[in-house]
Amino acid sequence: MTATRWLLLGLAALSVWALVAAVYRARETPVRGRTPLILLRSAVLVVLLLLLWDPELRLGGTSPGRGEDWVLLDASLSMAASAGETTAWERGVEAARSYAAEGARLYLAGSGLDLLPVDSLVMAKPMGLESRVVPWLTRAAEAGARAVTVVSDMRFSDGDGLPRALSELPFPVRFEPVNVAVRNAAVAAVTAPRSVAADSSFVLSIELSTEGLDADADTVLVELSEGGSVIGRAAARPAPLGVPVRATIRAPAPRRSGTLRYDVRAHVAGDGFADDDTRSTYVTVSARTGEIVLVSFQPDWEPRFLLPVLEASTGLSTLGYLKVGSAYVMLGSSADAAGRRTPETEIRAAAADAELLVLHGLSQTSPDWALAAAREHPRTVIFPTDPASVQALGHSGRPAAPGEWYIARQLPASALAAALAGLPVDALPPLTDLIVVDPDADLTSALLAQRARRGRTDGALLIESAGSRRRVLAVGRGYWRWSFRPGEGREAYRRVWSAAAGWLLESEAVAGRLVRPEPRVVPRDETTRWVVAEDLDTLRLRILAGDTVVQDIVLLVGAADTVSSGRLAPGHYRYAVTSGGAAATALAEGPLTVERFSADLTVLPIPVPSAVEGEGSALRRVGNGGRRLHTHPAPYLLALVLLCAEWLLRRRWGLR
Question: Given this model, what pLDDT does residue 472 score?
Answer without folding.
Answer: 95
